[in-house]
Amino acid sequence: MKIKFLILTIFFFGIQLVSFAQCAMCRASVENNVSNGDTSIGAGLNSGILYLFVMPYLLAAVIGYLWYKSAKKKKAKLSLR
């Protein structure tokens, strides 16, 4: 079990190092396109950033709602007894 956890941890940190390297390339691409008058790539990049920003909070909200709903059902069953 510890070996699996160690391998997964190394894997996730490895992916993050690769993703950090892409930020400079995206910025250069957007700056180049904006200087040429094309703003659609920048708008698409901003939409992608917002999508990635909202997803964890949305997932946490859905899990919280399902947890609340389940706890409410259990409490109702216990009060009937």
Largest sheet: none
- Overall mean pLDDT: 82
What characteristic shape results from the CA principal axes?
elongated
Q: Could you tell me how far the N terminus lies from the C terminus, measured between alpha carbons in angstroms? A: 41 Å
Structural class comes to: mainly alpha
Alpha carbon gyration radius: 22 Å
The proportion of residues in beta strands is: under 5%
Number of strands: 0
What order do the SSEs take from the amino end to the carboxyl end, as H and E? HH
User: What level of helicity do the residues show?
Assistant: over 70%
Total DSSP helices: 2
Uncertain segments are none
Defining traits:
81 residues, mainly alpha, 2 helices, 93% helix, 0% strand, elongated
Concise account of the structure shown:
With 81 residues, this protein is an all-alpha fold. Helix content is 93%, strand content 0%.
Structure description:
By secondary structure, the chain is mainly α. Helix content is 93%, strand content 0%. It has two helices and no strands. The protein has helices at residues 2-35, 40-80. The longest helix is centred in the C-terminal third of the chain and has 41 residues, at 40-80. The protein starts with a helix and ends with a helix. 0% of the residues are buried. The mean pLDDT is 82.
